[in-house]
Amino acid sequence: MLEADRVTLTYGATTALRDVSLTLAPGSRTALMGPSGSGKSSLLHCLAGVLVPGHGQVLVDGQDLTGLSDRERSRLRLERMGVVFQFGDLVPELTVAENVMLPLQLLGTRHAAARSRALELLGELGVADVADSRTGAVSGGQAQRAAVARALVHEPRVVLADEPTGSLDTVNAEAVLDAMVALSTGIGATLLVVTHDNLVASHLDELVVMRDGALDGAHDAALGARGVVG
Ligand SMILES: Nc1ncnc2c1ncn2[C@@H]1O[C@H](COP(=O)(O)OP(=O)(O)OP(=O)(O)O)[C@@H](O)[C@H]1O
Ligand SMILES: [Mg+2]
Question: Does the keyword ATP-binding apply (predicted)?
Answer without folding.
Answer: yes
